Amino acid sequence: MTMPRTLYDKLVDSHKVCDLPDGEMLLYVDLHVMNEYTSPQAFSGLDEKGLPVWKPESHLAVVDHVNATRGRAAPDAASQLLIDNLGKNCAQHGIALYGLGDPRQGIEHVVVPEQGLVAPGMVIVCGDSHTTTYGAFGALGFGIGTSEVEHVLATQTLRYRRMKNMRVTVSGDLAPGVVAKDIIMKVVQVVGAGGANGFAVEFAGEAIRSQSITGRMTICNMAVELGARAALIAQDDVSHAAVKGPYVNPAEDWHSDPGAPFDRNVEINGAEIAPLVSWGTSPDQSVPVDALVPEPDATLPKAQESHGRALDYMGLIAGTPMTDIAIDRAFIGSCTNSRIEDLRQAAAILKDRKVADGVTAIVVPGSTMTRLAAEAEGLDVVFRDAGFDWRPEAGCSMCLAMNDDVAMDGERVASSTNRNFEGRQGRGARTHLMSPAMVAAAAVKGRIADVRAFVEHKDL
Amino acid sequence: MPTHVTGRAAPFPLSNIDTDVIMPKRFLRTITREGLADGVLADLRFDTEGNENPDFVLHRPAFRGAEILVVGDNFGCGSSREHAVWGLKQLGIKAIIGTSFAGIFYDNARKNLLVLASISPSARDAVLQAIAEQPLDVAIDLDQKQVRWDDQSVPITIDQATQRALVEEREDVSDTLSLNAQIREFEAKRPNKLVVRVPK
Ligand code: SF4
């Protein structure tokens, strides 16, 4: 009898080319995805060594991080250089490029599922930490650095150390108004920002199973914020139905065997999750929207220091109700929350409502296809009528503010993104993470707002 | 790379320092690996006019030119940008001592021979205390897997592969290409249907 294995271990085993010394292995990569800013030095590394790309057809490059979203002109010369450089490298090596103007262009982790390039059982890597998104399909996705990008270009493999296994079970039914973003923010809060370092995390439980593929992508996407090197959800009818491409291996069932050993188990009661908002500068610093900005824990002197620092940076005083915090900007977008379902949820809040005076609100669909689909349903009209700026080009935009969508020093942003780090959305900018519907609610109120007061949330 | 790294150590003990803070995005619009030293922790090191922040640890006389950082938990979390590691190296940082490092940052450091020494929280606090009093040289011994200062020594947790990669200055791409027959064999056995062909 074979030993029961976790889904993660099955994925690794099925892609092991050979063992290497010191407990490492060579791991085969089915698909490698690139963007314009973490790949240039990998290509120059290849050129310096005079090496070809091992298997050009199994790579995809997109332009998403630096491009403007108001139009196609690059925000500046340095960004244009990155875009041109990617074009040159892809042409030279025969790699598919979905660049600006291509109908398939968009944020890498939105484009890959949309184009049918992910299926259960695959290994997908990308020079971007949110590659964990593909776990929603039962595929092993993880982020790599530029040296590894070069390695996978040259060899179609990575030198790999097996991670430990963690299972996060979110049981029960979610309360009304609670969505996938709240689930993952809760998990980050419970496990901690580095709590899953060295682990691959499998999400299980009814609250996970009941999520659509979009919700699952949101959850797996942000698993990297707890340090997870991979996030996985077992294959089921939902993920099966969402697979668009031909790369399904019927020989395998991609789930953990009963009794498979997990090094760590975390249990969360889904019914107790409330809509969450981050108050600090680490994604684990969040509270229910109807709570107060928390006091530092007096029993933890070290935590107190980072707590105080976060309050300082965020310009907040402990004890303030979260819903008293006024915002300057609202941003809906990013690979966490820019898919059509996310846009629908935000639009449901905005219908027949207006963005508050003094709030600059923008929405950047995750891909060109998403934008067109949204426009076909009239969502753009809902957003525009409410006072949102509906951007005509897709990209990461203010998720990392590498283009010209930048928040100013001291400005406060209600954001559907994944990171509230210091400076993430602009030097001195203050980010509050929340679901897209909550961003819409905050835009309308002009301050952080409880989405539950807005709708019969059954439709969220 | 020798098995020892020794240098002046500077305290930088904040938790969850992410790579956005280590290398802000305005330094990422580049197609080379060069010129990143100024970007390291730029928003903490410099004011908006580009003047040095005199309070920043590496600008204090005792720690100027330090080659080792002693950091808080979960250092290097967030974005995969290897620019963070390139910049730290270019600034002259040879090693970082902490309790835990984020995975991608850890792998990036290894590829660039930046030594990351994981020690226990109590050991890290002891190092912090020692260097808070006076400027001090700290030694990282990859052979013995120890951090040493004064007459103290504490064990480093490091996997065999990373330790060897650092000491032997391995060049991974050519090493892997020497296994090309195995890679071809794996590919030959893979069902054709599973071979990803991205439409151009
Ligand atoms: S949307 Fe944000 S998190 Fe996602 S790939 Fe772009 S920058 Fe990274």
Index terms:
heterodimer; A: 460 residues; alpha/beta; Aconitase, domain 3; Aconitase, Domain 2; 3 domains; 5-stranded parallel sheet; 14 helices; 19 strands; globular; B: 200 residues; Aconitase, domain 4; 7-stranded mixed sheet; 8 helices; binds iron/sulfur cluster
Describe it for me?
The complex is a heterodimer of chains A (460) and B (200). Chain A has 460 residues and is α/β, with parallel strands linked by helices. Chain A folds into three domains: 7-160, Aconitase, domain 3; 164-272, Aconitase, Domain 2 (3-Layer(aba) Sandwich), CATH 3.40.1060.10; 276-459, 2-Layer Sandwich (Aconitase, domain 3), CATH 3.30.499.10. In chain A, 29% of the residues lie in helices and 17% in strands. Chain B has helices at residues 19-22, 42-45, 83-90, 103-111, 121-133, 160-168, 172-177, 180-189; strands at 4-12, 68-71, 95-98, 115-118, 137-141, 146-149, 152-155. The longest helix of chain B is centred in the middle third of the chain and has 13 residues, at 121-133. Chain B is globular, with a radius of gyration of 19 Å. Chains A and B meet through helix 2, helix 3, helix 5 and helix 10 of A and helix 4, helix 6, helix 7 and helix 8 of B. The complex binds iron/sulfur cluster.
